[in-house]
Design a protein that fits this description.
NADP; 9 strands; binds nicotinamide-adenine-dinucleotide; alpha/beta; single chain; binds the ligand Nc1nc(=O)c(N)c(NC[C@H](O)[C@H](O)[C@H](O)COP(=O)(O)O)[nH]1; globular; about 210 residues; 9-stranded mixed sheet; DHFR-like_dom_sf; Dihydrofolate Reductase, subunit A
C-alpha cells in the first residue's frame, strides 16, 4: 500500500571523523558560516522541522528561522516518546507552532503545544508521516539527532540526505554519529547526487537507492 507522506530531507553536520557532537553530547559548531546560511534556507523552505528529544535536551534549539513571524515559521516537531520535554525548552516559546509527538501510553501535556500520540515504545514514524501529510505538511526537514535519523532510514522514510563534513576531528567512541540506533543488517545504499565546498567544509547530498 502506498502511503502519502511529506518529502523528507535529513540534514546534519558531522566532523571529518564522522561525529555529530562530542562524547559529552553538547552542541558543537561543525557547520561553516556558508553551511549555516544554507541550513537557514532549507528550514525556510520546509513546512516542518523535526528533532528528537535527545537533541532538545542537549542543545535546546529554537528551531525557528530568524526574521520570520509565527505564521511564517515552519511547524516545530519534537519526538518525545516518554514525555521528557521540559516546560522551559525553547521549542515551547511563542515564536512558532509546536507539535510534540509522544507514545500512546504517555499522558503528558504541555502548555502552548499540540500533542499527538502514536506508537508503543517509540513514536510510529510511518503513522506520523501520514498524519503530517493529512494536515498539509508536504516538506519535512529532519535535523537529528543520530537516533532519530537512524529510525527514518530504518523505516525507508528518507528522500534526501544532506551531510556537511566540517574540517575537524573530535574523536570519542561514544560520540554520536549521523545514524546511531542499533545499526542495520543490510546497508541503506545511497546515490551521491551532489557535492559542494561550503567554506572550510564539504556538503554531500545523497538520495537513497530504491532496491525494489
Ligand atoms: N551536528 C548535527 O547536525 C546535529 C544535529 C542534531 C543533533 N545533534 C547532536 O545529536 C545528539 C542527540 O542525538 P540523540 O541520538 O541522543 O537523540 P535524538 O535527538 O535522535 O533523540 C532520540 C530520542 O527520541 C525519542 N524517540 C521517539 N520516537 C523515536 C523514534 N521513532 N526513533 C528514534 N527516537 C525516537 C527517543 O526518546 C530517543 O531516545 C546531541 O549530542 C546533539 O548535539 C547534532
Ligand atoms: N547544521 C548543523 N550544524 C552544526 O554545526 C550543528 N551543531 C547543528 N546542530 C543541530 C542542532 O539541533 C542545533 O541545536 C540547532 O541547529 C540549533 O538550532 P537553533 O538555531 O537554536 O534553532 N546543525
Amino acid at each position: 500500500m502506498i502511503i502519502m507522506r511529506p518529502f523528507v530531507t535529513v540534514n546534519c553536520a558531522m566532523t571529518a571523523d564522522g561525529k555529530i557532537a562530542s562524547v559529552l553530547r553538547k552542541q558543537m559548531r561543525i557547520s561553516s558560516a556558508e553551511d549555516l546560511a544554507r541550513v537557514k534556507e532549507l528550514r525556510k523552505n520546509s513546512d516542518a522541522i523535526l528533532v528528537g528529544i535527545g537533541t532538545v535536551l542537549s542543545d535546546d534549539p529554537h528551531l525557528t528561522v530568524k526574521g520570520l513571524s509565527y505564521e511564517e515559521n515552519p511547524l516545530r516537531i519534537v519526538l518525545d516518546g516518554r514525555g521528557r520535554l521540559p516546560e522551559t525548552a525553547r521549542v515551547l516559546d511563542d515564536l512558532a507552532e509546536t507539535l510534540i509527538v509522544t507514545c500512546e501510553n504517555c499522558s503528558k501535556t504541555w502548555a502552548g503545544a499540540e500533542v499527538l500520540r502514536t506508537g508503543r515504545d517509540k513514536v510510529n514514524l510511518t503513522d506520523l508521516m501520514e498524519k503530517l501529510y493529512d494536515r498539509g505538511i508536504r516538506t519535512l526537514m529532519v535535523e537529528g539527532g543520530g537516533e532519530v535519523i537512524s529510525s527514518f532510514f530504518e523505516n525507508g522514510l528518507v528522500d534526501k540526505y544532506c551531510v556537511f563534513v566540517g574540517s575537524m576531528i573530535i574523536g570519542g567512541r561514544t560520540a554520536p554519529t549521523p545514524a546511531d540506533g542499533n545499526g542495520f543488517e543490510q546497508p541503506v545504499n545511497l546515490k551521491l547526487v551532489d557535492y559542494k565546498i561550503l567554506g572550510n567544509g564539504l556538503l554531500l547530498t545523497y538520495e537513497p537507492v530504491n532496491d525494489l
